[in-house]
Amino acid sequence: MLIHENIMMRAHLEIVDEYRELAEEFGIGIELGDFCNVEILADREEYDRRQRIWKEILPIIGLKRTLHGPFRGLVPHSTNSSLRRSSRELIIQGLETAEDLGCSTVVVHSAVDEKNDGPEELKRMTDDFLPFLESLLDRFEPSIVLENIHDRDTRFLKGIADQLNHPRLGFCMDVGHMSAFGEISFAEWYETFAGRILHNHWHDNDGSRDAHRAVGSGSISWQEITGLREKFAPQSSVALEIASGEAIRRSLKTLDRFITTPVNN
Fold it and tell me: Would you give the DSSP letter of residue 243?
């Protein structure tokens, strides 16, 4: 039987009552989703309100917590100096929030897409991003996990892994993104980052788009995915990036059939 204690769901204040019900029923932790929204980070009054409420709620819930950092429109390795600067300021704000709310881990997007994944551009982005990333690890306590987004393969993230071996730098394997955007096997993703995978994002789709459906409702083989996690990242945590409580329940039921190694954080 799957041990749910350290599995998480993505949640924000609008569904906090539903999350608390699921937490009580299954003992699942939380990945805070409010602060990945750059509009909320830019609205100081709204940001303070959400941070204050979560500060009150989280100690009561008392479960494992991670935070998804801001991402929409952010390119921290952009050649546009204004965009690069504003992107980095928002990422820093996300880490400050995570530290203040006692989150163990912050998810940061790779910001790679098919338009900028030529060899020379990937090298430029890596060289530009590494010093910033290292400064974040020196400054903040939470672990940072880099997540594959539109990455067609492992090249950019592997370039980071090869050059920066820090105990609090890891990788987040987003299986739904691998299915929708990747051009290599799930096995190659997991094997490439074996020993450095701290976190996973699990959700389903049919391979044509990033749908964030319940686990077991798309074309992804969850027997394969759970087997890869157990082989290459048995201590990694898992966040279910799925919208509804009912879909979370169905996902946990599906995963119960396959996972034998407890999911840790």
Answer: S
- How confident is the model at residue 1, as a pLDDT? 35
In one letter, which amino acid is 136?
A: L
d(CA 209, CA 220): 13
| pLDDT < 70 regions, the chain | 1-6, 260-265
State the sign of the Cα–Cα–Cα–Cα dihedral 176, 113, 265, 224.
positive
C-alpha to C-alpha distance for 105 and 201, rounded to whole angstroms: 13
Q: Kindly give, in sequence order, each residue whose CB lies less than 8 Å from that of residue 131, ignoring residues fewer than 6 positions away.
A: none
Residues 98-121 as b or e (16 or more Cβ within 10 Å = b):
beebebbbbbbbbbbeeebbeeee
Instruction: Tell me the pLDDT tens digit for each residue of 35-84.
Output: 999 999 999 999 999 999 999 999 888 788 999 999 988 999 999 999 99
The count of other CB atoms within 10 Å of the CB of residue 144 is 23
pLDDT of residue 265: 45
**Which residues are CB-neighbours of 248 under 8 A, at least 6 positions away?**
9, 22, 28, 214, 240, 242
Q: What are the CA-CA distances from residue 215 to residues 152, 162, 173, 201, 221 (Å)?
A: 22, 32, 15, 11, 9
Residue 184: Cβ-neighbour burial (10 angstroms; 0-12, 13-18, 19+)? middle
Q: C-alpha angle with apex 179: 220 to 201, nearest 5 degrees? A: 80
Q: Which fold has domain 7-256?
A: TIM Barrel (3.20.20)
pLDDT of residue 261: 58
Quickly tell me which residue has 């917590």 as its tokens.
65
Instruction: Please name every residue paired with 199 in a beta bridge, in sequence order, or none if there are none.
Output: 172, 237
